[in-house]
Each structure stands twice: as C-alpha cells, then as structure tokens.
Amino acid sequence: MLTWGVDNFPFLIYTSVTVLYKTYMTVTKNEFGQMNMWAKEPSMYMTKEDLERYGIEPYAERAQRANSRWAMIGIISGIISYSLTGNLFFGIF
Questions:
Q1: CA distances in angstroms from 22 to 28, 46, 82, listed in the order given
Q2: DSSP 8-state symbol, 4
Q3: CA triplet 79, 81, 82: central angle to 5 degrees?
Q4: Virtual torsion, Cα 38, 42, 43, 45, nearest 10 deg
Q5: Is 27 in contact with 37 (CB distance < 8 Å)?
Q6: H or E stretch including 31?
Q7: What pTM was computed for the model?
Q8: pLDDT tens digits for 35-49?
Q9: Are the CB atoms for 88 and 81 separated by under 8 Å?
C-alpha cells in the first residue's frame, strides 16, 4: 500500500518535477554536455477571434490597405492634373 509519509517524499518530488518538466520546461545541452532547464516560450500566434477582440491588425493587411490608398491618391491627382492643365501630373508628362 502506498502511504504519503516521509518515506515517499523523494517519489513526490520526482513526480512533481517530472510533471513540471513535461508541461512547462524544456531541456537543452550546452557545449560541455551539461543539461539546462529553461521555461518554454509562449507561442506568438493569435487566432482571428483574438485579433478581432483586441483590435489588432496584421502587418500585411495594414500594408495592403496603405498601398491601395496611396494608389488611389495618385490616380485622383492624375485625373485632377489632367483636367486642370491638360498634362498628366502637372506638366511632367
């Protein structure tokens, strides 16, 4: 029968360290073969629901939106320039 007294203290420590190691820690070896335990880094991935909830916009979408807005400004300025001067972009072309 398993009792949780002083006799089983090393087993309890070993079990808790093993569970901690498998869930929260990762082991690496340095150039001398020594093992180091480091905490696992959290993943940097956010789901679409998280992005919408916190109002975070990915870089690619923000860059695409800025690019399209500047392109529309260029087209509108070319139309206005052509209608005022008869040349595209205020006499350059």
A1: 13, 23, 69
A2: -
A3: 65
A4: -160
A5: yes
A6: none
A7: 0.42
A8: 776 666 666 777 888
A9: yes
Tell me the range of 7-21, 26-40, 55-69 where mean pLDDT is highest: 55-69
Task: Determine whether 44 is exposed, middle or buried from the number of CB atoms within 10 Å of its CB (0-12, 13-18, 19+).
Answer: exposed
Output the pLDDT for position 49. Answer: 87
Going by pLDDT thresholds of 50, 70 and 90, the confidence category of residue 2 is low
Whole-angstrom distance, CA of residue 77 vs CA of residue 72: 8
Residues 48 and 55: beta-carbon distance below 8 Å: no
- Span 16-30, pLDDT tens digits: 766 666 666 566 777
Sequence-ordered list of residues with C-beta below 8 angstroms from that of 38, at least 6 positions apart, any chain: 25, 26, 27, 28
The owner of tokens 């082991």 is 27
> What is the rounded distance in angstroms from the CA atom of residue 58 to the CA atom of residue 62?
6
Q: Which two tokens stand for residue 26?
A: 């990762």
